[in-house]
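Sanity check

After download, print the first record. It should look like this:
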Amino acid sequence: MGKIQVEDCEIEGLKVITPTVYGDERGYFMETYNYNDMKAAGIDVTFVQDNQSASKKGVLRGLHFQINFPQDKLVRVVRGEVFDVAVDLRPGSATFGKWHGVRLSEENKKQFFIPKNFAHGFIVLSDYAEFAYKCTDFYHPNDEGGLLWSDPDIGVDWPMPEGMTEADLTISDKDHKWSGIKEYMKERGL
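Expected C-alpha coordinates:
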Protein backbone atom coordinates (compact mmCIF):
# COMPACT_ATOMS: atom_id res chain seq x y z
CA MET A 1 0.00 0.00 0.00
CA GLY A 2 1.80 3.17 1.12
CA LYS A 3 0.08 5.55 -1.30
CA ILE A 4 -2.81 6.12 1.09
CA GLN A 5 -3.32 6.23 4.83
CA VAL A 6 -6.66 4.87 6.02
CA GLU A 7 -8.15 5.84 9.36
CA ASP A 8 -11.08 3.85 10.73
CA CYS A 9 -13.76 5.92 12.45
CA GLU A 10 -15.69 5.08 15.62
CA ILE A 11 -18.58 3.98 13.40
CA GLU A 12 -17.68 0.72 11.69
CA GLY A 13 -17.31 0.97 7.91
CA LEU A 14 -16.59 4.71 7.75
CA LYS A 15 -13.04 5.50 6.69
CA VAL A 16 -11.03 8.69 6.30
CA ILE A 17 -8.43 8.36 3.56
CA THR A 18 -5.39 10.58 3.19
CA PRO A 19 -3.48 10.20 -0.09
CA THR A 20 0.26 10.59 -0.48
CA VAL A 21 0.90 13.91 -2.18
CA TYR A 22 4.03 14.38 -4.27
CA GLY A 23 4.93 18.04 -4.59
CA ASP A 24 7.67 20.16 -6.07
CA GLU A 25 8.10 23.65 -7.52
CA ARG A 26 5.64 22.80 -10.32
CA GLY A 27 2.78 21.87 -7.99
CA TYR A 28 1.68 18.41 -6.84
CA PHE A 29 0.48 14.98 -7.94
CA MET A 30 -1.65 12.44 -6.07
CA GLU A 31 -3.76 9.42 -6.86
CA THR A 32 -7.35 10.12 -5.88
CA TYR A 33 -8.40 6.51 -6.42
CA ASN A 34 -6.54 3.24 -6.91
CA TYR A 35 -8.59 0.06 -6.73
CA ASN A 36 -5.70 -2.07 -5.44
CA ASP A 37 -4.87 0.32 -2.60
CA MET A 38 -8.52 0.68 -1.64
CA LYS A 39 -9.09 -3.08 -1.72
CA ALA A 40 -6.05 -3.59 0.54
CA ALA A 41 -7.64 -1.08 2.93
CA GLY A 42 -10.90 -3.06 3.03
CA ILE A 43 -12.80 -0.98 0.47
CA ASP A 44 -13.60 -3.50 -2.25
CA VAL A 45 -16.35 -1.82 -4.28
CA THR A 46 -17.00 -0.95 -7.91
CA PHE A 47 -17.82 2.67 -8.61
CA VAL A 48 -20.20 3.33 -11.53
CA GLN A 49 -20.84 7.08 -11.37
CA ASP A 50 -18.84 10.21 -10.52
CA ASN A 51 -20.57 13.43 -9.46
CA GLN A 52 -19.39 16.95 -8.74
CA SER A 53 -21.17 19.93 -7.25
CA ALA A 54 -20.28 23.54 -6.51
CA SER A 55 -21.72 25.48 -3.60
CA LYS A 56 -21.23 28.81 -1.92
CA LYS A 57 -20.44 29.47 1.73
CA GLY A 58 -23.23 28.44 4.07
CA VAL A 59 -24.90 25.92 1.76
CA LEU A 60 -26.00 22.81 3.65
CA ARG A 61 -26.90 19.74 1.59
CA GLY A 62 -28.39 16.68 3.25
CA LEU A 63 -28.94 14.42 4.92
CA HIS A 64 -29.59 12.23 1.84
CA PHE A 65 -29.72 8.54 0.96
CA GLN A 66 -31.26 6.25 -1.64
CA ILE A 67 -33.93 3.92 -0.29
CA ASN A 68 -33.93 0.84 -2.54
CA PHE A 69 -30.66 1.44 -4.41
CA PRO A 70 -28.20 2.39 -1.64
CA GLN A 71 -24.77 3.65 -2.64
CA ASP A 72 -21.29 3.42 -1.22
CA LYS A 73 -19.64 6.84 -1.69
CA LEU A 74 -16.09 8.11 -1.78
CA VAL A 75 -16.24 11.88 -1.30
CA ARG A 76 -13.64 14.64 -1.45
CA VAL A 77 -13.30 18.38 -1.88
CA VAL A 78 -11.51 19.70 -4.96
CA ARG A 79 -11.71 23.36 -3.95
CA GLY A 80 -12.58 25.01 -0.64
CA GLU A 81 -13.63 23.30 2.60
CA VAL A 82 -16.69 21.45 3.86
CA PHE A 83 -17.72 19.61 7.00
CA ASP A 84 -18.97 16.24 5.76
CA VAL A 85 -21.34 14.04 7.79
CA ALA A 86 -22.51 10.41 7.63
CA VAL A 87 -25.37 8.99 9.75
CA ASP A 88 -25.60 5.22 10.29
CA LEU A 89 -28.94 3.83 9.04
CA ARG A 90 -27.95 0.15 8.94
CA PRO A 91 -30.68 -1.92 10.62
CA GLY A 92 -29.27 -3.80 13.60
CA SER A 93 -26.08 -1.74 13.73
CA ALA A 94 -24.77 -0.97 17.22
CA THR A 95 -24.27 2.62 16.04
CA PHE A 96 -27.64 3.07 14.31
CA GLY A 97 -28.59 6.77 14.31
CA LYS A 98 -25.08 7.91 15.25
CA TRP A 99 -23.16 10.39 13.12
CA HIS A 100 -19.54 11.10 12.28
CA GLY A 101 -18.18 14.24 10.68
CA VAL A 102 -14.89 15.15 9.03
CA ARG A 103 -13.45 18.32 7.51
CA LEU A 104 -12.56 17.83 3.87
CA SER A 105 -10.60 20.51 2.06
CA GLU A 106 -8.40 21.20 -0.90
CA GLU A 107 -5.55 21.66 1.60
CA ASN A 108 -5.86 18.39 3.56
CA LYS A 109 -6.94 16.39 0.46
CA LYS A 110 -8.70 13.86 2.69
CA GLN A 111 -11.45 11.63 1.36
CA PHE A 112 -14.33 10.07 3.26
CA PHE A 113 -15.61 6.59 2.44
CA ILE A 114 -19.27 6.17 3.34
CA PRO A 115 -20.76 2.66 2.97
CA LYS A 116 -24.27 1.81 1.84
CA ASN A 117 -27.13 2.58 4.21
CA PHE A 118 -25.76 5.81 5.61
CA ALA A 119 -27.37 9.23 5.21
CA HIS A 120 -24.93 11.84 3.94
CA GLY A 121 -24.65 15.61 3.95
CA PHE A 122 -22.24 18.52 4.17
CA ILE A 123 -21.99 22.22 4.96
CA VAL A 124 -19.70 24.58 3.04
CA LEU A 125 -17.31 26.41 5.36
CA SER A 126 -15.25 28.30 2.75
CA ASP A 127 -16.48 31.06 0.42
CA TYR A 128 -16.93 28.46 -2.32
CA ALA A 129 -16.45 24.68 -2.55
CA GLU A 130 -16.31 22.08 -5.28
CA PHE A 131 -17.31 18.65 -4.00
CA ALA A 132 -16.63 15.42 -5.94
CA TYR A 133 -17.78 11.90 -5.20
CA LYS A 134 -17.83 8.41 -6.62
CA CYS A 135 -20.89 6.14 -6.20
CA THR A 136 -21.41 2.39 -6.49
CA ASP A 137 -24.92 2.69 -7.91
CA PHE A 138 -26.58 5.08 -10.28
CA TYR A 139 -28.76 7.93 -9.06
CA HIS A 140 -32.46 7.03 -9.12
CA PRO A 141 -34.55 10.23 -8.81
CA ASN A 142 -37.63 8.42 -7.50
CA ASP A 143 -35.62 6.65 -4.81
CA GLU A 144 -34.51 9.65 -2.75
CA GLY A 145 -34.71 9.59 1.00
CA GLY A 146 -33.57 12.01 3.63
CA LEU A 147 -33.40 12.98 7.26
CA LEU A 148 -33.85 16.45 8.67
CA TRP A 149 -30.38 17.99 8.94
CA SER A 150 -31.27 19.59 12.29
CA ASP A 151 -32.98 16.57 13.91
CA PRO A 152 -32.14 16.81 17.64
CA ASP A 153 -32.37 13.02 17.97
CA ILE A 154 -29.40 12.69 15.63
CA GLY A 155 -27.71 15.79 17.04
CA VAL A 156 -25.20 16.63 14.32
CA ASP A 157 -22.94 19.39 15.63
CA TRP A 158 -22.72 21.39 12.41
CA PRO A 159 -19.94 23.99 12.56
CA MET A 160 -21.12 27.38 11.35
CA PRO A 161 -19.12 29.09 8.61
CA GLU A 162 -17.23 32.11 9.90
CA GLY A 163 -19.50 35.14 10.29
CA MET A 164 -22.71 33.13 9.82
CA THR A 165 -25.48 31.82 12.02
CA GLU A 166 -27.93 28.98 11.41
CA ALA A 167 -30.43 31.56 10.10
CA ASP A 168 -27.95 32.52 7.33
CA LEU A 169 -27.61 28.99 5.91
CA THR A 170 -28.85 28.15 2.42
CA ILE A 171 -30.89 24.94 2.56
CA SER A 172 -33.19 23.60 -0.15
CA ASP A 173 -36.94 23.42 0.46
CA LYS A 174 -36.70 19.63 0.17
CA ASP A 175 -34.01 19.46 2.87
CA HIS A 176 -36.18 21.53 5.21
CA LYS A 177 -39.06 19.04 4.81
CA TRP A 178 -37.40 15.72 5.66
CA SER A 179 -38.57 14.10 8.90
CA GLY A 180 -36.35 13.03 11.78
CA ILE A 181 -34.92 9.65 12.63
CA LYS A 182 -37.84 8.66 14.89
CA GLU A 183 -40.26 9.00 11.96
CA TYR A 184 -37.78 7.15 9.72
CA MET A 185 -37.71 4.26 12.22
CA LYS A 186 -41.51 4.21 12.55
CA GLU A 187 -41.97 4.10 8.75
CA ARG A 188 -39.61 1.11 8.53
CA GLY A 189 -40.87 -0.72 11.62
CA LEU A 190 -37.56 -0.40 13.44
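If your output differs, re-run the checksum step. Summary of this record's structure: The chain has a mean pLDDT of 96.
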